[in-house]
Design a protein that fits this description.
The chain has 308 residues and is α/β, with parallel strands linked by helices. The chain has two domains: 142 residues, Rossmann fold (3-Layer(aba) Sandwich); 160 residues, L-2-Hydroxyisocaproate Dehydrogenase, Chain A, domain 2 (Alpha-Beta Complex), CATH 3.90.110. The chain has ten helices and 14 strands. The strands form four sheets. The chain has a six-stranded parallel sheet, sandwiched between helices. It has a three-stranded antiparallel sheet with strand order 7-10-11, covered by helices on one side. Helix 4 links the parallel strand 4 and strand 5. The model has no long low-confidence stretch (mean pLDDT 98). The structure holds nicotinamide-adenine-dinucleotide (NAD) and (2S)-2-hydroxybutanedioic acid. (2S)-2-hydroxybutanedioic acid binds next to helix 8.
Length: 308
């Protein structure tokens, strides 16, 4: 199983490290445009192999896509992250061109690859890849909801004063500060609805802190987060590589599901060897449906900025 990660920066290198440590891939190729950067990150990571106990071979490439040939899965993290005070959507002017070129370069050498899009604004970048590559929609996956759901569980566990292993919850909708839809009504503590334990103010706080989770960290770090994003991507890669049939919220191209068309946005999907094996349509409350519709309007507005 060969995996390529384009962008050997904070998220890409973290993703590569988590994939290696999980040791399900034979090879991970890190590619970056900065001279020597991917090679350096790969060598540094390989020098953890005896310490972290993995056999995965990590190699680096400075913009030579021939090294990525035959990749089964390709992750796109190339592009700029936001600075404090920015929205993800403000990155479109620079990242759209990068993501378009990178996806084309990847597919030239790995025409059968499954593409996972990470670069922001992620839902719109996923839509861009869908529109410009012509790949079947099951092979284009946007990562955002898996990360947002991890932050949702973090906030739920904090509010519940419970171990994170007791908590479950999912975030759907757009991967944006205003557009996320944390499904608080579905969230549970060991199969018991969290509304049995938390009052409305506490639940509202969890939802709001989840929605701005990325911005909160960007404010603290001065750049985007990378550990949880890298871990979230590695989970999607593993589900595909190991044909796990696991359900994640991922950005995918919709054709009527959830009443939405011609958009990539976060919905529950089953991930396996074919990428998106199935879109799962769950029962939403009227309020959740309205939030999803509003979220989709925001994503479509950003999509409109693309020069397709
Ligand atoms: N979807 C999500 O949940 C999520 C989470 C975290 C970060 N992000 C996004 O991921 C992207 C990367 O974030 P980061 O913190 O890793 O940034 P970073 O600056 O640390 O890394 C980005 C890397 O991309 C490289 N790059 C730029 N143009 C390239 C090109 N044409 N080809 C190959 N490599 C290129 C840069 O040299 C840099 O090393 C940002 O757009 C960020 O907003 C998304
Ligand atoms: O928030 C960001 O700028 C990066 C990413 O989308 C995140 O949610 O961490």
């Amino acid at each position: 199983m060969k995996v390529t990660v384009v962008g050997a920066g904070a998220v890409g290198a973290s993703c590569a490290e988590y994939i290696a440590i999980k040791d399900f891939a034979s090879e991970v190729v890190l590619l970056d445009i900065k001279e020597g950067y991917a090679e350096g990150k790969a060598m540094d990571l390989m020098q953890t192999a005896s310490l972290n106990g993995f056999d995965t071979k990590i190699t680096g490439s400075t913009n030579d896509y021939s090294k990525t040939a035959g990749s089964h899965i390709a992750v796109i993290t190339s592009g700029i992250p936001r600075k404090p005070g920015m929205t993800r959507e403000e990155l479109i002017g620079i990242n759209a061109g990068i993501v378009k070129t990178v996806s084309q370069n990847l597919l030239e050498h790995s025409p059968e690859a499954i593409i996972i899009v990470v670069s922001n604004p992620m839902d719109t970048m996923t839509y861009l890849v869908h529109k410009t590559t012509g790949l079947p929609k099951n092979r284009i996956i946007g990562m955002g909801g898996a990360l947002d759901s991890a932050r949702f569980k973090y906030r739920l566990a904090e509010a519940l004063e419970a171990p994170i292993s007791d908590v479950d919850g999912m975030v759907i909708g757009g991967h944006s500060d205003k557009g996320m839809v944390p499904l608080i009504g579905h969230a549970t503590r060991n199969s018991v609805k969290v509304s049995e334990f938390l009052n409305q103010d506490q639940m509202d706080y969890v939802v709001q802190e989840t929605k701005v989770g990325g911005a909160t960290l960007t404010g603290l770090l001065g750049t985007s987060a990378w550990y949880a994003p890298g871990a979230a991507v590695s989970g999607l890669v593993q589900a595909i590589a190991c044909d796990q049939k696991k359900m994640f919220p991922c950005s995918t191209f919709l054709e009527g599901e959830y009443g939405l068309n011609d958009i990539c946005i976060g919905v529950p999907v089953i991930l396996g060897k074919n990428g998106i094996e199935k879109v799962v349509e769950i029962e939403l409350s009227e309020a959740e449906k309205a939030k999803m519709q509003e979220s989709a309007e925001g994503v479509s507005k950003t999509n409109g900025l693309l020069e397709l």
